[in-house]
Amino acid sequence: MALIAEKIDCGKCAKPAECVCKTCGENFCEKCKRQHLKSKSTKNHQLSPLAFSDRDECVLHTTHTYDMCCKDCDVPVCVKCVTENHVGHVFVEKEMLYQQKKDTVLSIISTLKNKLVPKCKDTHNQVLENITNCKQVMANIRGRIRDTAQEIKSLVDAVLEKNMATLERMEISLLQKLLSEESTISDQLTLLTDKLDDLEYRYQNCTPAQLMLTADTKLPLKEENIPYPKQLTLPEYHSKSIPEDKISRLFGEIIESPDAMEVPITPVHDLGNLYNNMTFPVQKVIGFAPSDIQYGRHISCMRNSCAWVSDRLSNMTLVNIQGTTLDTFSIKSKGDGYHCATMTNNLLYIDKAMKRISKLLPKEKKVESLFSIPKTWAAISIHSSWINEDILIGMHNKQEAKIVRFESTGKELETIQRNSKTGEDLYCYPHYITEGPTGDVCASDFEKFSVITVNRKGEYKFTYKGPKKAQFFPHGICTDKVGNILVCDNQCKYRIHMLDPDGVFLRFLLSKDDGILEPLGLCIDDCNNLWLGQRGKEFVSVFKYNTHVNENLYM
Q: What string of H, E and C letters represents the secondary structure of 385-444?
């Protein structure tokens, strides 16, 4: 049996260390190891046992070596151990018991490797698949219920419109008849009041002779000629109460799952918390602060684990994943998402001073001017499609905002500005743009406090406004390869929201424990590294983003 060559203390306490963390290099005893793996910031660190040697040094009596084994206790012992703790026990040669132990360990290793671990992995994958199926089925049912509700609402609106039209027609007909009667009686009333006024005047001011000569005592209208108002029959409305079960039948029926009834739901188990508790390995690789910029406002990931990082003052630096500065660049384009990487590993940026879109060719060390921006609009954000190399530009003027799709040559292809169904403006200030793997265009709109997404055809898909009863200030935005949307929340200061491709909140990714402080820009590179820009001491952080797990959880 081999033991540790020399005594190494735990980095947290004075006990002997049993393992070393490959991620941070710290040595731990068994207790501190468990605490290390429980911490949110270090739970994904890789630990391994300390190196072993062939010297059988007794752990209780370090000046002695193991000479034999206690058969009763099944442990190796030295001479001192025999006299102190194993008096009266049966002892055997250590090689025999060692071989038995090695055979037992080897058998357990074989069982773990060939049976238990593969079976557990299969079970785990099946559970993940069930989670995915559950989410998809629930989303499908929700969509069908909403469609049914919209259909019923359309029918209700149609009946309402028909009834309103019937009432309007009846009202017009009745009013025409009543107004005709009113006009006739009004003329008669005028005739009678004129006659009354004339006679009263003559009676009061004329002499008897004048009265006899001028007064016309004939009535202009006989009493029987004054019509009585017709008995008017007005329409009535008989409302009927609609029982809830009748409405429910219109929607269809949800057949409850027996499995859903087995687990009691506590008040804290809402969907957000449940998805937030799902395993999502994101391991920090490095954190650093490039000297050429003030903080990480926006990040454009290039190939080979490199990224352009910029602050709001137009300072840009190209860094690799080790934190080494490879290049610097400065442009007159203060703002947020004003640059992006292309499929060909070049950098597009908005030249706000010249109102042009330009391309930086890092290898050639030169800048190409691509096309001009319309004079009446100001470009504020840009994204280059990794699907077809189209260029998406967020624009605004004093009254409205839009996203325009261009060919790489500058030919305008599409304008995304309003909801085609409602006519409402989609954007106010889309200061970050990204595109999903299916062509969905996602914009982070600071003034609307929302993430607005349209599909590849420019049709409105959803708006995400953050958790209920909480302010949401969206900044940097990106998508992973399965379409999940990651967006920085600058209001909360230390969290990133993760949405599925349909805008359903999945969980908060990373936290204050991971060193997150006021996240601003983020991007995922072609090696599945998540780059995060923020304020703070280490304002550029890189995390390993496990897309394999993402596919199982959210596709």
A: CCCCCCEEEEEECCCCEEEEEECCCCCEEEEECECCCCCCECCCCEEEEEECCCCCEEEE
Tens-place pLDDT, residues 326-381: 988 887 777 788 899 998 889 999 988 888 999 998 888 888 989 998 889 999 99
CA atoms of 268 and 273, how far apart (whole Å)? 7
Phi, psi of 244 (to 5 degrees): -60, -35
Query: What six digits make up the tokens of 501?
Result: 């491709």
Percent of the chain with pLDDT over 70: 91
User: Which residues, in sequence order, are CB contacts of 104 under 8 Å at separation 6+?
Assistant: none
DSSP string over 299-337: EEE-SSSEEEEE-TTSEEEEEETT--EEEEEE-S--SSS
Under a CB-based contact definition with an 8 Å cutoff, are residues 337 and 476 in contact? Answer: yes
Strand order across the beta sheet in which 282-288 lies = 282-288, 540-545, 529-534, 519-524
Q: Kindly state the tokens that stand for 489.
A: 């929340």
Fold of 275-554: Neuraminidase (2.120.10)
Q: Is 495 exposed, middle or buried (0-12, 13-18, 19+ CB in 10 A)?
A: buried
Angle at 444 between CA 286 and CA 307, to 5 degrees: 30
Cβ neighbours around 408 below 10 Å, total:
19
Dist CA 430 CA 377 (whole Å): 13
Give the chain's end-to-end CA distance (angstroms, integer): 48
Buried/exposed code over 64-102 (b: 16+ C-beta within 10 A; e: otherwise): eebbbbbeeeeebbbeebeeeebeeeeeeebeebbeebe
Q: What is the DSSP letter of 511?
A: -
Whole-structure pTM value: 0.58
Instruction: Quote the pLDDT of residue 512.
Output: 75
pLDDT in the model for residue 2: 39
SS3 461: strand
Domain ranges of the chain: 3-103, 104-216+242-254, 275-554
Q: How many CB atoms lie within 10 A of CB 511?
A: 15
Q: In 61-216, where does DSSP find H-type helix?
A: 79-85, 94-111, 117-205, 208-214
